[in-house]
């Protein structure tokens, strides 16, 4: 399709058409959006009537969240492959304005709405026995439709460590060079205006970013003086400014990119980037409000399990329906959902499956194990300075203002956080506790899971602790009338688990991240909050703050900090690990090709496969993960041998394929300053419909 649209644009450029309606579309991105909306183009691959779906598809994708919609878009580029996405949540159309408006993340949050699973953890012994809220997106786009929109790439040593732990990654899909190319493939970078960059102190290196992907990486159209004091303040505390945080070293302080489309100041997320701009694809169906209840297995076979399809239902009281998979079932239901579906299908730790009344098809102990999350909290300060919260209270509602979201961050390594001597002491102490931690902190007690825990424990304590990798993230928030300085632990040694408690997909699983059960985690988080307080007291930021209201002066000793932390911290919304990509003898669930061990045609491709927490927000790496997964799957079925470092996929001659991550720079350079390739495909399709004289309703 894209090779056709390039030719079409060149042809139309000398025609009457380009001088009229198409020219207006190109000139005005908002008009382009209106044209798409007016013709119902947003819904063209989304099925509202379940009776319209086929009885079988080549690929069934379970979950239409961040990763699932990337996979749907990329796999359906091959016209010889049919793709179905089953998403438990709604389409999101009824609340599209809230989804699209970045600031509504704070002021009209969809957390707690029908678009949020609203999970709760089990009581956390390390957090004063509290049940911690775990919001997760239940809508097309998943959490990318309701999250805080941070786009932070992980560190090169972290990704290379994943490769090292997985010796069967012979194609090197999980090395930094290959993985970074996949992240860039998903991205269209938009530089801030000169005024915004100067006021906020934004630094960037455009060469480290992608220029032609479906997801916009940009900056708000509004900022505030206080933001520009973030990096100068941190530099006085030994935390340097980082002018190139997307290059594989995200340490230090900076104003990070966010998933904002600067052409119209809207949220850029997996649906708006990968699905909405597509032309009609007869080989792609996306069905919302369809909860997958289990995978259907081929009966009477020995060896690996083979999936023949899935069952799904629209509600707990509705009849189950079956759809067949000709090639693969791909789980992209997230850290909670993918492990849950595997367990409901009889794949997981046998003792948990039996207790839930599920027949065991495959005893795979790692499913649901290694559950981790970034744990965070906030120090709150009063201020007389202008904040986004004060302007919102005054009724300011311009598109530029409503694009403002928090994006000032810093990743602080252990030596900077603790000092050299204390950091060395903590590292030595933690390294000495690996065996005792493995025997006392792992709920399941499986030897392979314990072996994997020790391997990752050694990676964290021997590599990450002594490197420049951030062990604490600091964040600045000014979206209320107060100023918040937040701290979040990045590489916890505490791990938990997730398991089903019934055979129903509509019953929530048991979720236990085991927050702060390792003493090193509490020490690091405590020191992170102490660092946050030092930031508030340092110039020039201190001039904007008039007093600490939470926790206040009553908290100063280590014991006081620990009590406050355990009673107040919560999720940073980054759960991972339940379908870890590790060798089978280390408690792994998927191989480097993302195939579930013991199955022949089931893969997992979402944030659940990370074997440890990354020192980043998970959106950016998971876009890269989904791009990489798409390449792996397409290569396998198209019989193509590709260079994993390439940013596009070349398909065999038997398939009709587009390369949405590539473009001819001479032809498309100017257009791609405004639109991603996916958007251009949709615009050209609308233009052709106009030109033909038949405005299609699609």
UniProtKB/TrEMBL annotation:
<dbReference type="Pfam" id="PF05199">
    <property type="entry name" value="GMC_oxred_C"/>
</dbReference>
<dbReference type="InterPro" id="IPR012132">
    <property type="entry name" value="GMC_OxRdtase"/>
</dbReference>
<feature type="domain" description="Glucose-methanol-choline oxidoreductase C-terminal">
    <location>
        <begin position="492"/>
        <end position="626"/>
    </location>
</feature>
<feature type="region of interest" description="Disordered">
    <location>
        <begin position="645"/>
        <end position="666"/>
    </location>
</feature>
<feature type="binding site">
    <location>
        <position position="292"/>
    </location>
    <ligand>
        <name>FAD</name>
    </ligand>
</feature>
<keyword id="KW-0560">Oxidoreductase</keyword>
<dbReference type="InterPro" id="IPR007867">
    <property type="entry name" value="GMC_OxRtase_C"/>
</dbReference>
<dbReference type="GO" id="GO:0050660">
    <property type="term" value="F:flavin adenine dinucleotide binding"/>
</dbReference>
<feature type="active site" description="Proton donor">
    <location>
        <position position="574"/>
    </location>
</feature>
<dbReference type="GO" id="GO:0016614">
    <property type="term" value="F:oxidoreductase activity, acting on CH-OH group of donors"/>
</dbReference>
<comment type="similarity">
    <text>Belongs to the GMC oxidoreductase family.</text>
</comment>
<keyword id="KW-0274">FAD</keyword>
<feature type="domain" description="Glucose-methanol-choline oxidoreductase N-terminal">
    <location>
        <begin position="57"/>
        <end position="375"/>
    </location>
</feature>
<keyword id="KW-0732">Signal</keyword>
<feature type="signal peptide">
    <location>
        <begin position="1"/>
        <end position="23"/>
    </location>
</feature>
<keyword id="KW-0285">Flavoprotein</keyword>
<dbReference type="Pfam" id="PF00732">
    <property type="entry name" value="GMC_oxred_N"/>
</dbReference>
<feature type="compositionally biased region" description="Low complexity">
    <location>
        <begin position="647"/>
        <end position="660"/>
    </location>
</feature>
<dbReference type="InterPro" id="IPR036188">
    <property type="entry name" value="FAD/NAD-bd_sf"/>
</dbReference>
<feature type="binding site">
    <location>
        <position position="139"/>
    </location>
    <ligand>
        <name>FAD</name>
    </ligand>
</feature>
<dbReference type="InterPro" id="IPR027424">
    <property type="entry name" value="Glucose_Oxidase_domain_2"/>
</dbReference>
<feature type="active site" description="Proton acceptor">
    <location>
        <position position="617"/>
    </location>
</feature>
<dbReference type="InterPro" id="IPR000172">
    <property type="entry name" value="GMC_OxRdtase_N"/>
</dbReference>
<protein>
    <recommendedName>
        <fullName>GMC oxidoreductase</fullName>
    </recommendedName>
</protein>
């Amino acid at each position: 399709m894209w090779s056709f649209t390039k030719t079409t644009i060149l042809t139309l450029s000398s025609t009457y058409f380009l001088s009229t309606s198409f020219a207006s579309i190109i000139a005005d991105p908002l008009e382009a959006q209106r044209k798409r909306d007016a013709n119902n183009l947003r819904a063209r691959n989304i099925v509202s009537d379940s009776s319209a779906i086929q009885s079988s598809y080549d690929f069934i994708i379970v979950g239409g969240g961040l990763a699932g919609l990337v996979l749907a878009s990329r796999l359906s580029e091959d016209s010889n492959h049919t793709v179905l996405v089953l998403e438990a949540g709604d389409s999101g159309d009824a609340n599209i304005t809230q989804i699209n408006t970045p600031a509504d993340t704070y002021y009209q949050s969809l957390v707690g709405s029908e678009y949020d699973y609203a999970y709760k953890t089990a009581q956390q012994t390390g957090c004063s026995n509290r049940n911690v809220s775990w919001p997760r997106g239940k809508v097309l786009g998943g959490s990318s439709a309701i999250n805080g929109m941070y786009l932070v790439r992980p560190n090169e040593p972290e990704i290379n460590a994943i490769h090292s732990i997985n010796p069967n990654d012979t194609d090197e899909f999980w090395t930094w060079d290959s993985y970074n190319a996949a992240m860039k493939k998903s991205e269209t970078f938009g530089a801030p205006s000169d005024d915004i960059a100067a006021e906020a102190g934004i630094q960037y290196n455009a060469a480290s970013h992608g220029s032609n992907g479906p997801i916009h990486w940009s900056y708000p159209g509004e900022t505030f003086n206080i933001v520009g004091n973030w990096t100068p303040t941190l530099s006085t505390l030994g935390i340097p400014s980082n002018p190139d945080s997307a290059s594989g070293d995200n340490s230090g302080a900076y104003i990070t990119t966010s998933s904002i489309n600067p052409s119209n100041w809207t949220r850029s997320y997996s649906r708006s980037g990968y699905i909405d701009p597509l032309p009609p694809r007869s080989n792609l169906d996306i069905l919302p409000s369809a909860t997958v209840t289990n995978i259907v297995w081929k009966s009477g076979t020995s060896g690996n399990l083979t999936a023949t399809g899935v069952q799904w239902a629209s509600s707990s009281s509705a009849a189950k329906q079956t759809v067949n998979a000709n090639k693969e079932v791909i789980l992209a239901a997230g850290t909670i959902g993918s492990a849950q579906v595997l367990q409901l299908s009889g794949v997981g730790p046998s003792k948990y499956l039996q207790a839930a009344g599920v027949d065991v098809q495959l005893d795979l102990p790692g499913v649901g194990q290694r559950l981790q999350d970034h744990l965070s909290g906030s120090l709150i300060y009063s201020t007389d300075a202008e904040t986004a919260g004060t302007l919102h209270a005054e009724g300011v509602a311009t598109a530029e203002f409503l694009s403002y979201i928090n994006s000032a961050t810093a990743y602080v390594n252990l030596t900077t956080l603790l000092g050299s001597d204390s950091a060395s002491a903590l590292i030595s102490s933690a390294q000495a506790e690996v065996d005792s931690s493995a025997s006392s902190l792992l709920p399941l007690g499986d030897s392979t899971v314990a072996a994997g825990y020790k391997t990752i424990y050694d990676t964290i304590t021997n590599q990450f602790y002594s490197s420049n990798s951030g062990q604490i993230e600091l964040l600045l928030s000014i979206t209320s009338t107060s100023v918040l300085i937040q701290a979040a632990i990045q590489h916890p040694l505490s791990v938990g688990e997730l398991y089903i408690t019934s055979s129903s997909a509509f019953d929530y699983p048991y979720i236990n991240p085991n927050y702060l059960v390792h003493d090193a985690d509490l020490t690091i988080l405590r020191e992170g909050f102490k660092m946050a307080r030092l930031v508030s007291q340092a110039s020039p930021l201190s001039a904007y703050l008039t007093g600490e209201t939470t926790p206040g002066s009553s908290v100063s000793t280590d014991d006081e900090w620990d009590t406050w932390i355990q009673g107040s911290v919560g999720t940073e919304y980054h759960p991972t690990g339940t379908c870890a990509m590790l060798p089978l003898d280390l408690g792994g669930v998927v191989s480097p090709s993302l195939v579930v061990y013991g199955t022949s045609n089931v893969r997992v491709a979402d944030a659940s496969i990370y074997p440890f927490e990354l020192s980043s927000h998970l959106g950016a790496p998971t876009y890269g993960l989904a791009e990489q997964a798409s390449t792996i799957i397409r290569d396998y079925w198209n019989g193509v041998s590709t260079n994993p470092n390439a940013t596009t996929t070349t398909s065999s001659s038997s398939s009709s394929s587009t390369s949405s991550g590539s473009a001819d720079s001479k032809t498309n350079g100017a257009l791609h300053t405004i639109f991603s390739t996916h958007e251009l495909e949709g615009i050209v399709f609308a233009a052709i419909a106009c030109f033909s004289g038949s405005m299609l309703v699609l």
